[in-house]
């Protein structure tokens, strides 16, 4: 049986690429029965019905899977946040980072609209971003007016599958259009009344870009941690996870426990206070969520 990769999912159809040919496929009924949904990025076994259509018979094992956006087998996530309109938000960025870290996907932080900041605002943002660089996250700054950072960003996309995600209205689709103008993807203006962008991306699709693939995905403005347990959260904060190895008590949650290496590092300014505060905030959300049955 032939094998291929799902490049797009839309209205119950899955578009499978195999040797430069694309087949519009439906999933077999057994997927619905087993509550399995084929995802963009899945490697699949399919059966051709004719030159353009077919049925997906089997989904190959996934190395990872994201829920929002629904996509599988991702190498890295480009987390796009604007410096302004909407304003840069460390809480939301950390929510994305935690969700990505939990899926073992490599994150890259991309800041758009840097040119809209005053010199004072740039200095303030640079100071915040320095913490993320120190943690080990790649941080890229882009400016549409100056074409700054686009070439460097393009280099990160080669030879891998990337998902581009972030808050609505930050310029995700605009960046893809700048990298590959022939795509002419639809973009939306910021809604000044709501203070956020209109959702212009309606489905997930893998787009060839250079020697890699990038997914343009629906924007969204909130994330939950339904798949993360309290004891796992510290692994999603690399700087906390590193210090946690020296805690005296196994299973330390780094809040009220004695002889906690994380709290000690915090007191010695080895962990950014805002990052620790976000960790505590997310931990409380996980501890207070309703039980799942």
From TrEMBL:
GO MF annotation terms: GTP binding; GTPase activity; metal ion binding; rRNA binding
Residues annotated as binding Zn(2+): 247, 252, 254, 260
Limits of the CP-type G domain: 63-223
Enzyme class: hydrolase
Superkingdom of source: Bacteria
Gene3D superfamilies noted in UniProt: Nucleic acid-binding proteins, P-loop containing nucleotide triphosphate hydrolases, Probable gtpase engc, domain 3
One biological process term in Gene Ontology: ribosomal small subunit biogenesis
Keywords carried by this UniProt record: Cytoplasm, GTP-binding, Hydrolase, Metal-binding, Nucleotide-binding, Ribosome biogenesis, RNA-binding, rRNA-binding, Zinc
Cofactor note: Binds 1 zinc ion per subunit.
Cofactor or coenzyme needed: Zn(2+)
InterPro entries, per database record: G_CP_dom (IPR030378), NA-bd_OB-fold (IPR012340), P-loop_NTPase (IPR027417), Ribosome_biogen_GTPase_RsgA (IPR004881), RsgA_GTPase_dom (IPR010914), RsgA_N (IPR031944)
Annotated EngC GTPase domain residues: 72-221
Primary role: One of several proteins that assist in the late maturation steps of the functional core of the 30S ribosomal subunit. Helps release RbfA from mature subunits. May play a role in the assembly of ribosomal proteins into the subunit. Circularly permuted GTPase that catalyzes slow GTP hydrolysis, GTPase activity is stimulated by the 30S ribosomal subunit.
UniProt similarity note: Belongs to the TRAFAC class YlqF/YawG GTPase family. RsgA subfamily.
Name listed for the protein in its UniProt record: Small ribosomal subunit biogenesis GTPase RsgA
Primary gene name: rsgA
